[in-house]
Automatic annotation (TrEMBL):
CDD domains, sorted: ABC_NikE_OppD_transporters (cd03257)
Protein name, entry field: Peptide/nickel transport system ATP-binding protein
InterPro entries attached to this UniProt entry: AAA+_ATPase (IPR003593), ABC_transp_ATP-bind (IPR050319), ABC_transporter-like_ATP-bd (IPR003439), ABC_transporter-like_CS (IPR017871), Oligopep_ABC_C (IPR013563), P-loop_NTPase (IPR027417)
Keyword terms of this UniProt record: ATP-binding, Cell membrane, Membrane, Nucleotide-binding, Transport
Species this protein is from: Acidovorax temperans
Domain named ABC transporter: residues: 15-268, 288-536
Source lineage: Bacteria, Pseudomonadati, Pseudomonadota, Betaproteobacteria, Burkholderiales
A Pfam family the protein falls into: ABC_tran
GO BP annotations listed: peptide transport; transmembrane transport
Length: 561
């Protein structure tokens, strides 16, 4: 949207001096504890306002306040106004707000599986919106739903209508949620991290879909995200939040190319570049060798029929050297996490070889595998679910050492050294997981893995759920750890930017097979396979050099995609 269009278009939403407080809590001066303080924003018809900031900045609280969905037992709007087309939503009762939701304002959440009822068919769930807000007949409602399913570019809409959520892919489920949100053509759409968990190609399709429907119906969009690549693609204006306050606001180019505030500069410059660094390939000894690895799963079979087998991993081969970071990238269902879990022996491979410093662990039983397990460790995506909330950090970190027979005091000393290595105070061992941020918890998970002194560390989407600033810190930590202790790192990710900055070598997987592999500069800088080229082309914001606050020149843009 250009400046003239913004001036001419009508303000759909206006938030004025919004304060959100935590009930029953006060700050150091005895005043109510405010989680959002004096927030002001406007969104015009057909405009996309991106709200960015780290976890705890207040961006999601703002969206819930706009939708009237703040938990009444703990949070409340203490002052301010939220005007939708001139009508203050804060003066409406719960019944009036229910009537406005879907018809005038709608929301798309990050995880579609939590937004959809797992025991009802998706067509009926969309139809429920029409049933509540219109007088259409059942036949008319079904026709409208099918029309909307077609509008969001879903295939075989009759089948999709009759499907349950678990029968659809993540991208298809998110399209269902978008169809549900937009079927009544609301004036305002609030999208809270709707593409964070999606692959780059699916993400590109969802962003294009929202933009298409937005321009078709003139919908105002508030898009909440920590992904600056997405921001660079879709934002008309950007609002930056930190600790409940607006730090800076302006057009996309103003914020990304000429940010005024130090906090904004820190956020933008933390975004990794898609252009890989030039780095020498490791020539050290191999710590992990995988040959002809296969993992097959049976499809559902009919009566007295042999089940058809599906290859989740097919003829996968790789070599990881000491001190090397080897990335595996690909879309969901490409087989990258299956390969990782086979290597760690969380699942049993169907055939092939997995050699850990020459020892074949492919067919070892649980008892025989036990002595080798400490030599290969894994860090999972979600640090919140990786730690037992009822155990102190120290007990979680030393658990493996104690299980292998190390005396508790000796194990605790190694845990203290691991805390030093990951940049956390030794006193952290006496605390519980809820006392730490997401980035700190991921550091603890890395410490728990490193304390075992493994030969191989598998990081499965270990930074995808983190803010860009925290992500940069964790990536720096992994880089430092591999150079200091020489551990080989197998880095599983769908984020090509992260892979470009941290990996020495890279493997691209599609449908269980490796389609391209080599040095990161070659694979991402000069991709040969069409699938790799499609992944790079789908990466949002690929024409922006965030660390230098500028768009790429034509030569660099060509290199990036």
């Amino acid at each position: 949207m250009n400046t003239q269009e913004q001036t001419a278009s009508k303000v759909v939403l206006s938030v004025k001096d919004l304060n959100i407080q935590l009930k029953g809590s006060t700050d150091g001066t005895g005043q109510p504890k405010l989680l959002v303080k004096g927030l002001n924003l406007q969104v015009r018809a057909g405009e996309t306002l991106c709200i960015v900031g780290e976890s705890g900045s207040g961006k999601s609280l703002t969206s819930l306040a706009i939708m009237g969905l703040l938990p009444a037992d703990s949070l409340q709007v203490s002052s301010g106004a939220i005007d939708l087309d001139g009508r203050n939503l804060l003066q409406l009762n719960s019944g009036q707000m229910r009537a406005l939701r879907a018809s005038q304002l709608a929301m798309v959440f990050q995880e579609p599986m939590t937004a959809l009822n797992p025991v009802h068919r998706v067509g009926k769930q969309i139809e429920e919106v029409l049933k509540l807000h219109t007088n259409l007949s059942p036949a008319q409602r079904r026709a409208r739903v099918l029309e909307m399913l077609e509008a969001v570019h879903l295939p075989d809409i009759q089948r999709i209508y009759e499907s349950f959520p678990h029968q659809l892919s993540g991208g298809q489920r998110q399209r269902i949620v978008i169809a549900m949100a937009l079927i009544l053509k609301p004036r305002l759409l609030v999208a809270d991290e709707p593409t964070t968990a999606l692959d780059v190609t699916t993400q590109k399709q969802i962003l294009a879909l929202i933009s298409e429907l937005q321009h078709k119906h003139g919908t105002a969009v508030i898009f909440i995200t920590h992904d600056f690549g997405v921001v660079a693609e879709i934002a008309d204006r950007i609002l930056v939040m930190n600790k409940g306050k607006v730090v800076e606001t302006g057009s996309r180019d103003q914020i990304l190319a000429a940010p005024e505030q130090e906090y904004t500069r820190m956020l933008v410059s933390s975004v990794p570049s898609l252009v890989p660094h030039s780095r020498a390939q490791p020539q050290s000894d191999a710590v992990l060798e995988v040959k002809a690895l296969e993992k097959l799963y049976p499809k559902a079979k009919g009566f007295l029929r042999k089940p058809e087998m599906v290859h989740a991993a097919n003829d996968v081969a790789l070599t990881l050297r000491r001190g090397e970071i080897l990335g595996i990238v690909g879309e969901s269902g490409s087989g990258k996490s299956t390969v990782a879990r086979c290597i760690v022996r969380l699942i049993d491979p169907s055939s092939g070889e997995i050699r850990l410093k020459g020892d074949d662990i492919t067919t070892l039983g649980r008892r025989a595998l036990l002595p080798l397990r400490k030599r290969i460790q894994i860090v999972f995506q979600d640090p919140y679910r990786s730690l037992n909330p009822r155990r102190r950090i120290g007990d979680s970190v030393i658990e493996g050492l104690v299980n292998y027979g190390m005396p508790r005091e000796e194990a605790l000393e190694k845990a203290r050294q691991a805390m030093d290595m990951v940049g956390l105070p030794r006193q952290a061992l006496d605390r519980y997981p809820h006392q730490f941020s997401g980035g700190q918890r991921q550091r603890i998970c890395i410490a728990r893995a490193l304390v075992m002194e493994p030969d191989v560390l598998v990081a499965d989407e270990a930074v995808s759920a983190l803010d860009v600033s925290v992500q940069a810190q964790v990536l720096g930590l992994l880089e430092e750890v591999r150079s200091r202790v020489g551990v080989g790192v197998l880095f599983i990710t769908h984020d090509l930017r992260v892979a470009a900055q941290i990996c020495d070598s890279i493997i691209v997987m599609k449908s269980g097979r490796i389609v391209e592999s080599g040095a990161v500069q070659q694979v991402l800088g000069k991709p040969e396979h069409a699938y790799t080229q499609a992944l790079i082309d789908a990466a949002p914001g690929r024409h922006w050099d965030f660390q230098n606050f500028r768009a790429f020149g034509s030569e660099q843009a060509a290199l990036a995609g």
